Amino acid sequence: MKKIIYSILLACGALVAACSDSPSTKGNTTITGEVAGLKQGKLYLYQMKDTSFVAIDSLIVNGAKDAKFAFGLDLESPEMLFLTLDRGHTKSKDNQIAFFAEPGNIEVNTTLKHFYADVEVKGSSNQPVYQEYLKTRAALLDVQNALIVDIFKAQKNENTKALDSLQKLDEKLTTRRYLNAINFALTHPSSDVAPYVALTDLYNANTKYLDTIYNSLDTTIASNKYGKQLKEYIAERKEMEKK
Q1: Residue 214 and residue 234: Cα distance in Å, rounded?
Q2: Is the Cβ–Cβ distance between 31 and 108 less than 8 Å?
Q3: Alpha carbon separation from 92 to 6, 34, 85, 192, 215 (Å, rounded)
Q4: End-to-end distance of the chain based on CA atoms, in angstroms?
């Protein structure tokens, strides 16, 4: 199994088109909602398969006041899906929403103006947990991003003493982010968010931490998609460490 690094794949935008222009509501999972203010563009529903994004459905919007959509698919267990907007005439980077879906009815509503920031997801028990994690991570990332600016200035000014101090602080913040992710996963063993966080934000962490997270998972979560992938990834890491 290849390394499952969803965050890197998201940044690369490795999208594979394999969809039709007519949305479908077949399957055990229905994704409905609307993009307020969208009059023209194309909506895609993407799913991660192996290490590639695959568009499983799409909808062309042309002239509607608000873009309402309905997509259907089969899910064996909860997993992250991606709603992507092709604006056509702009280069906006605010064009993708990642959300936890699960068998049943999921509602995703947002706006054209703030496609990512205004999103509201209903019907998913994992989504609120994931949003809680994102808040804890964002607080640390904001501090670390501000620190990067200071590091750049110190490098530009050739201030070795300040640079050394800032780099040590950056390392401490990185450690805090790891610990935050580990703690969050360990305290949410009954949520599919726990193994997902381990796979996306802790993929290069010490194997013993990944093992601890996996062993803490509820039986149902361990047998779901991300639980099984985490188990497989840990086994792969252990084999690599033997070499």
Answers
A1: 9
A2: yes
A3: 21, 19, 10, 31, 42
A4: 17
Phi/psi at 48 (5° precision): -80, 125
> What integer best gives the mean pLDDT of the chain?
87
Q: Tell me the three state secondary structure of residue 185.
A: helix
Answer whether 168's CB lies under 8 Å from 151's CB. Answer: no
Q: Which two tokens stand for residue 196?
A: 């997902």
| CB atoms inside a 10 Å sphere around CB 74 | 10
| Nearest Cα residue to 197 out of 215, 184, 206, 211 | 184
In the numeric block, which tokens belong to residue 205?
A: 């962490």
Residue 77 to residue 125: CA distance in whole angstroms: 12
Segment 157-175 shows an average pLDDT of 89
Name the residue type at position 122. K
Q: 230 near 216, Cβ under 8 Å? A: no
At 76, is the pLDDT very low, low, confident or very high (cuts 50, 70, 90)?
very high
The answer, yes or no, to whether residue 148 has pLDDT greater than 60, is yes
How many whole angstroms separate alpha carbon 203 and alpha carbon 1? 13
